């Protein structure tokens, strides 16, 4: 065969390949759109997204973005739309790492169906930077503020009860707006395996699971012997009935509703214990053990290196440059 006769079939081959790719792409598009009656996860999110306070077109844009994400993933099945709702409460406060950490967490949560992200700032005003991250995520979200009460803010000695007013505000929102589903306190500086969200969804009362990178022991977890709860493994027991980390448990919303007095105390180091005790009647032996009976670590207390606030920019030297724009993003 000469080169000339080879070229034609090659061109045809490429054309056929292209045609098939386009067909496959369209097929995958229609199957995403087909899932679930409520046309698709992206649209569902988009619909609920528009219910958010203070967002209009941004939600639609972000919903579309989420649709792109959905398209890149395996098609969601009908069963997934029936999944119990997850309410993720994230307390946050302004600091140099905040935007980076919320960006990363938003990207994790964007991969989780049937979820509402409740972000509560320890601040007197909602931060536009936080709002922008929430809107861009395309997730159904609720953006709230809950400043730490003055009496604790003024405290000079010892640690402050950080995140308590935020989490209680999130609980209050859930009490007023959610009938069922599951709530989880997800701080913005942790690392989450997607599996943990699917497991915690089916919590009937309180589920627990190991959290990695905690204290000198490296992990905090219920102890499981012969398949049943046998105590707690944690580097700081401190007389706590529930010596666990904030990221180590999830609570059923129905169960919470039956405990109208449950609240988190302003007690540094004892927030988890106080909250779990306030869910009485509830005993450790009733804990639902997730992560394959607590044999896997699906949440990590990563922590981020603390950064000093950025130094001031020489505004005359950098006047009319991008540096002044960048500076507005920084804390
Ligand atoms: C382990 O649990 C089973 C029942 O789940 C029980 O029959 C068995 O005796 C237990 N073994 C030990 C060593 O406790
Ligand atoms: C909630 O607290 C109030 C006041 O402290 C008390 O009267 C009530 O019995 C409590 N309810 C429950 C369900 O524990
Ligand atoms: C920056 O440039 C603008 C004009 O572009 C000028 O009005 C302003 O005074 C300059 N600011 C500083 C700090 O040099």
Low-confidence stretches: 1-6, 29-61
SSE string = HHHHEHEHEHHEEHEEEEEHHEHEH
Bound molecules: 2-acetamido-2-deoxy-beta-D-glucopyranose
The figure for the number of domains is 1
Distance between the termini: 69 Å
What is the CATH topology classification name?
Spore Coat Polysaccharide Biosynthesis Protein SpsA, Chain A
Mean pLDDT: 85
Strand content: 15-25%
Overall CATH architecture: Alpha-Beta Complex
CATH class reads Alpha Beta
Give the biggest sheet.
7 strands, mixed
Radius of gyration: 24 Å
Please estimate the helix content: 40-55%
What's the arrangement of strands in the largest beta sheet? 3-2-1-4-10-6-11
**Which word captures the global form?**
globular
Number of strands: 12
Structural class label? alpha/beta
Number of helices: 13
State the fourth-level CATH superfamily.
Spore Coat Polysaccharide Biosynthesis Protein SpsA, Chain A
């Amino acid at each position: 065969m000469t080169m000339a006769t080879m070229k034609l079939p090659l061109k045809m081959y490429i054309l056929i390949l292209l045609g098939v790719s386009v067909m496959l792409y369209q097929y995958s598009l229609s199957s995403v759109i087909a899932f679930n009656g409520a046309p698709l996860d992206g649209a569902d999110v988009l619909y609920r997204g528009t219910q958010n306070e203070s967002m209009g077109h941004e939600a639609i844009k972000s919903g579309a973005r989420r649709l792109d994400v959905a398209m890149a993933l395996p098609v969601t099945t009908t069963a997934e739309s029936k999944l119990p709702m997850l309410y993720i409460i994230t307390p946050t406060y302004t600091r140099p790492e905040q935007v980076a950490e919320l960006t990363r967490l938003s990207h994790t949560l964007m991969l989780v169906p049937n979820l509402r992200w409740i972000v509560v700032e320890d601040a007197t005003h909602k931060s536009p930077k936080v709002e922008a991250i929430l809107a861009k995520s395309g997730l159904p979200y609720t953006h709230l503020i809950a400043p730490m009460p003055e009496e604790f803010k003024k405290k000079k000695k010892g640690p402050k009860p950080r995140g308590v007013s935020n989490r209680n505000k999130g609980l209050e929102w859930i009490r007023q707006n959610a009938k069922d589903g599951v709530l989880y306190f997800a701080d913005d500086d942790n690392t989450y395996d997607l599996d943990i969200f699917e497991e915690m969804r089916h919590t009937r009362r309180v589920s627990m699971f190991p959290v990695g990178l905690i204290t000198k022991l490296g992990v905090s977890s219920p102890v499981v012997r012969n398949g049943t709860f046998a105590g707690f493994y944690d580097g700081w027991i401190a007389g706590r009935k529930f010596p666990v980390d904030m990221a180590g448990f999830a609570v059923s919303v129905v169960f919470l509703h039956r405990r109208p007095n449950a609240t988190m105390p302003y007690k540094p180091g004892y927030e988890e214990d106080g909250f779990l005790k306030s869910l009485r009647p509830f005993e450790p032996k009733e804990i639902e053990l997730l992560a394959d009976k607590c044999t896997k670590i699906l949440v990590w207390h990563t922590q981020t290196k603390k950064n000093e606030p950025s130094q001031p920019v020489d505004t005359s030297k950098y006047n009319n440059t991008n540096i002044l724009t960048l500076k507005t993003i920084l804390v």
